[in-house]
Amino acid sequence: MYLHQIKTLLALFVCFFALYSCKKAETPQNERVAMAQKTGESTLNLATIGAAVQEFEEKKSAAVENTRLALGSYWTDFEPTGFYLAPNTTLQLDVQQVTGNSLPKLLIGTYSRYVNKWNPQEVQLTTGTNTITADQFGGLIWIRYGTSGAPASKAKITFVSGAVRSPVYIKGQTTLSDWANQLNTYTNAPDVVLVGDRVYFVYARSRAIDTKTQDNNYVLEKADQTMNVEDDLSGLDGSAPQHQPNANTRLLLTETDNSDYWMVATYYRTAYYTDAAPYAFTPLIGSVDGWGPWHELGHMHQQQAWKWSTLGEVTVNIYSLAVERAMGVTPSRLKRDNVWPTALSYLADTSVNKDFNDSSMPNGVWVRLCMFHQLWLAYGDSFYKQLHKQTRIELPSVSTDAEKMRYFMLKACAISGENLSSFFRKWGFKVDESVYAEMANLGLPVPATDPSTLSE
Predict the structure, then answer these.
(1) In sequence order, what are the residues at sequence separation of 6 or more whose Cβ sits closer than 8 angstroms to the Cβ of residue 299?
(2) CA atoms within 13 A on the CB side of 89
(3) What is the pTM of this model?
(4) What single string gives the DSSP state of each residue in 28-41?
(5) Cα within 13 Å of Cα(229), Cβ side
(6) Looking at residue 42, what is its pLDDT?
(7) In 142-254, where does DSSP find H-type helix?
(8) DSSP 8-state code for residue 127
(9) Which of 7, 87, 152, 436 could share a disulfide with 138, CB 3.0–4.6 Å?
(10) What DSSP state is assigned to residue 289?
(11) Tens-place pLDDT, residues 139-182
C-alpha cells in the first residue's frame, strides 16, 4: 500500500513536470521578449511589430553614440513598425505620451532603398491625432526616438488608418509557413523587413518570394555573428561606460536599386545593389563570399582617430579578417589572394624614400592591411580591443594625417609593451622624427620577434 502511494505520487509529479515543460515550450516568443527587455538588450518590442497599437522607448541618439564610440558613421537609430504607406496616401495616427516629455519622429521610406528616394520623409509626431501624407514615393514606416540626454520617454502610437501591413520576419519566431502566408497576404507592400538580434534586412518582396524556402534564421544568425565579432574586436565588452555596446543595437542592411554602388556604408545604413544583394541576404553571408557585407559593417565600426586619409578601405578590413576567422574561412584573404609576397618585397626595400602612404605602393590597400595584420599576428585580438578602448577613453583631438599617425604609433607601442620604431620605419611611416623620439622615450624593449617578419 505504501509502495503504491509512492508510485502514485511519482506519477503525479511526472505529469506535473511534463505539463509544466509543455507550457514552457509553448511560449518561447514571450520568454525571449521578456529576457531581451530584462537584460536591456534592445528597446524594440518584437511582440507588437505590425500591431495596431505599439509602444516605443527613447534611447541614446545615433549622434551621441557616434561621439562616445569615436566612430565615423551614425548607426541605425530607428525601429520598424511593420507597416507600409503607399505613395500620396494619407496616414492617420494617434500618439500618446506614456512617460517623459519627448515624442518620436516618423520616417516614411528606407535609407538608400531606392535611387529616387535616397533618404526617408521625416515627420515630428505630436500628442493626439497626427495626419501625414506620403510623398510621391511612400515607403516602409519606421520610428526614430533618440535623445542626447538620459532616455526617459515612452510613447504609444495607434495606427488608425492609411497604412498597410508589410511582411516581417523575426529571427527565431517566424516559421517558414508563416512567412509564406505573410508574403501571400500582405501583397501591397513592395518591400519586406527581416529582424535579427543585431540587424535589419530590407529587400524587395519579389526577392523574398524567390528565397522564401531558405533558412532565414541561419542568414540572420550569420549577420548577427558578423556584428558580434566586430563589436568584440572593438572591445565593446561593457567593462566601463565607454565600452558599452552601441545603444542603437541593430544595423540596417538594405537592397538598393542604385547602380552607382555595388555595396556601400554610410550614415544609418549599409546598402547592396540588386545584383550584390545575394551576398548579404542569403547563406552566402556566412561563407567566403560574405566578405562584402563583413566589410561594409566593418566601415560602421572604424574609429576615426587612427584612420588617416589612405586607410578608408584598409582598417575596415581588420574587422573583415576577424569575421573571416570566426566563420572558419581558411586560408585568410591575404593569403588566398597572394598578397604577402608583395608586402614582404616592399618591407625588404631599404630605400629611405619609401612611404607607407604613397599612392605608388603596389596593391596598396591590401599591402597596407598586411601591416595591421602583422600587429594582430604578433599581439592577437587583445591589441585591437585595447586600441579601441583607449581611443574611446581618450577621445584624442586629432584631424591631420600626421596627428593620427602619431597617435596610432604611440598607442601601438604602449599597448604592445614594445618599442615598434623599427617596425614602423620598415613600413615607411614618414612622420616627424620627434615621434620616433617619443617612442624611444617610453623606455620599452624592442620585440624579441620583429612583427615585420611575420606572415601567413
Answers:
(1) 72, 73, 265, 270, 316
(2) 19
(3) 0.90
(4) HHHHHHHHHHHHTS
(5) 23
(6) 59
(7) 176-185, 205-210, 216-233
(8) S
(9) 87
(10) G
(11) 999 999 999 999 999 999 999 999 999 999 999 999 999 999 99
